[in-house]
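W.,

You were right to be curious about this one. When I first looked at the sequence I had no strong expectations either way, so I just let the prediction run and decided to look at it fresh. Below is the sequence, 40 residues in total, followed by the output.
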Amino acid sequence: TRRLAELSQAQRQASRDFDRVEFAPRGNLQQLIVNLLMGR
């Protein structure tokens, strides 16, 4: 059970790290939306 908790915690941290990068100002998601709106 402890091992599962550790794995779960690591997965949640990785998810938070991913979100921080992808959804940051000028991050990949914002750039994607801008490019779609600009027709690139």
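Here's what jumped out at me. The chain has one domain: 2-38. And, maybe more interesting for your project: The radius of gyration is 16 Å.

Coffee later to discuss?

I.
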